Every structure is written in C-alpha cells, then in structure tokens.
Amino acid sequence: MSASCSACLTAASSSSRLSPAPSARPLAYQVRSRPFCQRPTGAISELPVEMQRRGLGPRGLRGTVAPRTRGPCSSRAPRAPSSPRTRTPQPRAWHRADPGMSGPRPVVLSGPSGAGKSTLLKRLLQEHGSIFGFSVSHTTRDPRPGEENGKDYYFVTREMMQRDIAAGDFIEHAEFSGNLYGTSKAAVRAVQAMNRICVLDVDLQGVRNIKKTDLRPIYIFVQPPSLDVLEQRLRQRNTETEESLAKRLAAARVDMESCKEQGLFDLIIINDNLDKAYQALEEALSEEIKKAQRTSHS
Questions:
Q1: Short-list 172, 183, 171, CA closest to 137
Q2: What is the torsional sign of CA 261, 264, 265, 271?
Q3: In 35-113, which ranges are continuous DSSP H helix?
Q4: Quick one: where's region Disordered (predicted)?
C-alpha cells in the first residue's frame, strides 16, 4: 500500500470518529419538531410538511394525506360552517315609489252608511280646517240631492273608473250595490301637498285593501248603537228603496261584527250621542293634531 493510500485511510478513520452517527431513517422522512398536540395522525403523518402539502407518499407517489387536527391545548375553537346569506324580497309600497305621496299620517274612517261618519267629519273639518283635509272619493253611482261633484264625490262613469283602476291610479276600490267606490292616489296627494292630515272615508273592503299598502293611517270605525237605530236613520233620509235598505242593513250587520277583528281598527266609536262621539274622535287624533300644528308653525 502506498503512502498516499495509507494517509487516506488514516484520514477517513479519523473523520468517522469525529462525525455523529447518521440517522436511522432517511432525511426525507424526518418529522419537523413541533408540539405533540399539533402533530397530525395517519399512515403518512410522519412525512415532512412540504411533502404532506403536495400530497406525496413515502416513495414520492401521490396519496391521501390525513387531515390536520387541532390538539387539546389549542385555545382556538373550530369555525362553524357558515350558512348562505339569503335576502327576503320586500314588497314595494305605493307611496315609496311615489315621493309625492309622503306627508302627514292619514286617518281612515269607516262604518256603515247612516252611522254618522259624514256628520263627524264635517264637524272635524269645521273646527280644524287648517289641519285636516278630506280625500274626495270616486263613485259610479248617481248624485243624491244636495251632493256636489268634487266636494262630496267625484261622480264618474264605470268605464272611466275601471280604466283608472287598471292603470293603478287607485289606493283602494270596492263595489257595493252595483256601484264602484274608490280612493285615488291623486286625491290623497292633493291633501298631502297642503301639509294636512288626509281623511279617507272607506268601507270595510277598502280598509282591508289599505292594510296591504304602506300608508300607515289611523283606523277608526264608527258604528250606530244598534241595527234598529241605523234603520231609523236610513229611513229618515228618504233616499233608500226597500231593496237597497235591506242590502245596507245586511252589510252593516257584517261590518259591525267584522270590526271586532283584532288589529283591524285602532278605535271603535259608538255614535249614540254626537257630542260624545266627536269628543272621542278628537281625543284619538289629538297627538296628530299637535304634530301638524307644530309643523305648520315651524
């Protein structure tokens, strides 16, 4: 053996005594040091993190990697699966779509014919004429003696009213005794343009139709003390036939029962005494009257 070979063997022997023993497993399978509670479990859990992320098996082949789980020492709670966000469509309100329809909160008066709504309303307008405004309704019936077009009703033909209803120009409408009645948006807009509290005189069917809108009025029902008293009042008018009188009494009986439905009306006034009935009506509207007065003075 030559001197150079002997020197190489001596150096190799010396190097082997100084270097630490190699690991029992290849470097590719050594696990990165981390807390025990954070170590993944599974058949391939001892692979390096980079190989686990790439999905490589022990021989560099693609394989399934066990999911990483949190240990008991983790203070962070697992995130709950998020539910999909849903949005409920809201119905469009007629006065939101029309800025001109906004204004003071209206008042809806309802009750059978002969209950005294018109009498109470006239007195309300006389004493608070600068606060309230009456929404003139449309009808297809003939005018009664003393009624004026545009003041008591807008008297129109059935064809004209049906055309405007189809065009969406009415807040509510109903048919009674073969005649159409309804409240137009233009009538309400005219009152609200003067910054007054709009008063609507509608039947029970009209009340239910207004409930479907976003008008948010105060609902008041005026009724007679009894059907016998109502019949006497209707006969004193001398405007009803026996047939029409029977229809009105039958409708009044239904309305007086239906008005008791919870949430349908804010106030029910029994008009057995006109002064007391008006006092109850005025007290119910006192807050709205004060608001309107403050608005007119500002």
A1: 183
A2: negative
A3: 49-54, 94-97
A4: 1-23, 53-104
* 113 close to 257: Cβ distance less than 8 angstroms: no
Higher pLDDT residue, 174 or 17? 174
DSSP 27: G
Of the candidates 68, 163, 216, 237, the residue annotated as catalytic is 237
Active site residue 216: no
Helix (H, G, I), strand (E, B) or coil at 260: coil
Beta-carbon contacts of 182 under 8 Å, excluding residues fewer than 6 positions away, are 137, 138, 139, 161, 165, 170, 171, 172, 173, 174, 206
- Report yes or no: 220 and 266 within 8 Å, Cβ to Cβ: yes
> Of 144, 158, 163, 235, which is the active-site residue?
144
**Tokens 């390096």 belong to residue:** 48
Q: Is 44 exposed, middle or buried (0-12, 13-18, 19+ CB in 10 A)?
A: middle
Spatial distance between the Cα atoms of 10 and 4, rounded to a whole number of angstroms: 10
Q: Within a 10 A sphere around the Cβ of 251, how many other Cβ atoms?
A: 17
Of 125, 147, 137, 231, residue with least CA distance to 187 = 137
Cβ-based neighbours of 198, under 8 Å, separated by 6 or more: 103, 104, 106, 107, 132, 133, 134, 135, 188, 191, 192
Q: Is the pLDDT of residue 15 over 60?
A: no
For the question of residue 141 being annotated catalytic, the response is: no
Q: Which amino acid is at 42?
A: G
pLDDT tier for residue 164 given thresholds of 50, 70 and 90: very high
Q: Give the whole-number percent of the chain exceeding pLDDT 70.
A: 64
Q: Which two tokens stand for residue 133?
A: 């405004």
Distance CA 5, CA 269 (A): 125
